[in-house]
Amino acid sequence: MNEKMPSLGKEEMKIVGKYEDVTGPNYTDDQTLYDALKVEIIPAYNQYIEDLESVKVETDELRKIHEDYIEAANIQESAFSQSLQPSKIKIAV
Question: Cα angle at 49 between 46 and 55, to 5 degrees?
């Protein structure tokens, strides 16, 4: 766990950075945001969650913390996915 978690933390920061690259002051248009979420951010975050779930935790105390971390990651992924709903982003068809 001590070996894998730091690299997973860096991976999450990288993915969130990609999101920040297309939102807030970096927002350019809905299509760019949609494409980034659909093609890059959500697939990478889903892989991140799989990797996070594969980490073996040895103590009950750490397992509870790890489960909370996985739950938070799933909530984040859900927020990314909900952003793809047509009412959230207007895409030219």
Answer: 150
